[in-house]
Amino acid sequence: MGRKVVIAVDSSSHAERAIRWYAEEVAKPDDDVTLFHSCTFVCFPIIAGSPANIKNEHMRKQVNEKLAQVKAMTEKLEQLARDLNLRATLHARDGDDAGYNIVKFSKENGVHLIVIGTRGNGTVRRTILGSTSDY
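Request: output the structure for the sequence above.
Response:
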C-alpha cells in the first residue's frame, strides 16, 4: 500500500503547477492521490441536497453556475492527473475555510503528504491577506 497524498486544488494555474510538481518531484507509482477541493456554498440554503429544491430562481441559478464551474475545474484537473499517470480521485467538501477542510480531511483519512500550491505572495501580503498554505 502506497502513501496517501492530498493535493489541494482550485481553479487557478497554481493548482495545476502543484499537481505537476508532485508528479515530477515526489510521486511514487503506488501513491493514492486525492485531489481535494474546498468550495463554499454557505450562503445557499440547499434543501435535501439538490439545487432543484431552491425556490428562489436567482439563488438556484447561482448554485447551478457554481456547480458547473466546479465540475469543469475538476474534470480538467482529473484529466491532467491522468495525463501525468497519477492514480487520483477527487473529493470536494463544502466550507469556507479551505485550510481547516484540508487538514480535517487529511486527519480523517490518514494522509501522509499534503501538497498545496502557492500564489507567490510575499511575507507582508500573505500576513495581511492570509494564505491556505500557512494554515
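The mean pLDDT is 80.
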